[in-house]
Structures
1.
Amino acid sequence: MSALSVALIGCGSIARKHVASIAACPGARLYAVCDVSQERMESMATLWQAESGEKNNIVLFADYRKLLADPAIDIVVVATISSLHAEIAKEALKADKHVVLEKPVALSLKDVDEMIRLAEERGLFVQVCHQLRYRPLMKKIKELVAGGALGNLSMASVTLRIYRPPGYYQTAPWRGTWEYDGGMLLNQGIHAIDLLLWCLGEPSRIYGELYSQAGGKETEDIALGLLSFPSGAKGMIEANSVTLPENLEQSLFLLGDQGVISIGGPKLDRIDRWHIEGQPDTREAALQILHHHDEHIEMYRSLIEACQGKPPGNLIDLRQGRRTLELIFALYLSASTGQVQPLPLAGFSTLQMKQT
Ligand SMILES: NC(=O)c1ccc[n+]([C@@H]2O[C@H](COP(=O)([O-])OP(=O)(O)OC[C@H]3O[C@@H](n4cnc5c(N)ncnc54)[C@H](O)[C@@H]3O)[C@@H](O)[C@H]2O)c1
């Protein structure tokens, strides 16, 4: 079977990770890149040759619409500024391409619903970049929770205590705006929140508070959320991007009546507590895989296998991407009304936050 042709739209910071991951997958080959900056496109083409050892000339497109019209392309990676994700992904689906879609998948629920409709109508795959789910440690935790090893879960929390200096916003002015980025929770907090939802399912209500400590941007840099799940379990989100002078940690804490798992550290690969009644061997197994960080490659492998006809059960599809987005939107809504927000939400766009 010939390798699938991949095109990358958006050649900024995260694009490097995509190029390196595609190079690590024998079933795929980078074919084209697109950016409004010629220099960035050229640097991605050079990176591809260095990472893959291949000498194929990468086709450069300054206009993503022209790229999408190329019938040679099977998979499109959308890694542009966040406000363009939905627009480009919808056009890619209309052009019958499978999509790797960076988070956040969109900045409004209406856009996600349109993408879901297009993908399902056309039988196309969308792989949402919540890549931490592919990390072996996270898969182990999910497997234990789903198998009931922690017993009945009563409480879970995630924290994000990181630092984004003023230069982070100055070098890419779309960041820190409601219209183009969507806020710290949508940009940085989303991965930890996705893990919380993956383990516990959807909450039935949330109460949120936001605050902005640093100037020079519109969006929040501190966020708190209190969650209630249909089972009665409680959850907590505590996130900020102003922890001087550098990233401190992320954490995931899961508490059940048969055990507790608590992981943390700047890379979320430190075990603070791992106790499961009657199963001490699970901690040993977790220690063996603690520093395996090849989740981006695994994310691509899953999509390539699905495109090659294997069961797509391992994909993170748009319906899952929607749930994570919806929870963050509900926290934003609660923070702006001062009320507890029930889920599911009828609709929301980050543009609503501009008026609060
Ligand atoms: N999954 C992850 O862990 C992860 C990590 C970092 C960033 N991201 C996401 O990836 C996206 C990009 O983030 P980044 O940090 O690389 O940003 P960036 O600003 O470094 O890169 C964005 C790129 O998009 C390009 N672009 C803008 N308009 C375009 C257009 N019309 N056509 C083609 N290209 C266009 C810009 O020129 C720039 O090169 C964001 O949505 C962000 O949330 C995800």
Note: The chain has a mean pLDDT of 97.
2.
Amino acid sequence: MTLPTDQLHGAADTRTDATVVGVTTTPLTASMPRPWVPDAPWLHVIRVEVECSDGTVGSGLSWTPTIGAAAVRALIDTDITTFVRGRSADPQHLWPELWRHLHEAGGGGVTTIAMAGIDTALWDAAGIRRTASLVDLIGRRRDSVPVYGSGVNLHYPLDELVAQAERWVAAGYDAVKMKVGKPDIAEDVDRVAAVRDVIGRDRRLRIDANQRWDLPTAQAAIDRLSEFDLDWIEEPLRADDTAGYRHLHGSCTVPIALGENLHTVHRFRDLLDAPGVDIVQPNVVRVGGITPFLEIADLAAERDVPLAPHLLPELSGQLAMVLAAETEVEAVEEADLTALGLLAGPAPVRVDSGRLTTTGAPGCGIRLVGSPAGRS
Ligand SMILES: [Mg+2]
């Protein structure tokens, strides 16, 4: 089915005669105030700057929170830089050429995470060239979007989990998300009950298993947890297990959210066709940048399936402004680029009373700090 254009994202004009002159990468590491896992208190990002023949310099990023930063940077510095030098600086023109060139190394994963650094930098350059924010370059649909509170909190003791839920309520969120997947499902039941108790019946509650369960475990766990009026269950199974999702989808009473570990529009189509997913959650970096993110958004709109972007609110929040359907942006406490001290200038988005707005800075508006890896 092809939707009328008013139900898809805007048709961004990124055409340019400029070509890519050079690419510079800088690895950055931030200490996490609230580590996602107890033994990995660091988050890694690759800053990618692309210089164009018209003198414009676009700044982008490859987000590699715990795994793969060195491999991603090496791919950008070698094969990608060699290929893109002298080619069009139009991100929508370059993306399919670069993907075809790299495909032998893998259609998604490290390949697309590395491509995102180039793609986001070229979208930034396109906005700077036109003195337009990313939102206005693509086509603004709204002036603010709701934010939901999200916790990477499976390792939190119960009292810390409850305290976090209290902070979410105070922050004005209408929806929140917590981790599940303890070895004993009874502990998950206690923790979900505690958070539901804090947030009350009127706020929506989502749970995220981060691919921890097999099919029988997921079915049993969801049976137990569904009494808490869940808005969605996220990644109950391995993201690769399309057959498992098809089975689960056929019997599950809770909507299934999935997508932060799908890397191409083809994989999103596979899961939608299975059918195995009710809410798609692309991560703008993992899918290869803004160009493929918008393609996935159009696919979701065509299938009438909600899209909820995964993390990176500084970028995802801007993209949420251009989507035809309103969506909620995910905010993990003290884990965005702003809170981690990775921005050299003001953030391109603001969050207040549970809603996100943009500042209108040209391009993507994300200027990462320039100091090398290892800063503290
Ligand atoms: Mg998740």
Note: The first strand starts at residue 20 and ends at 31.
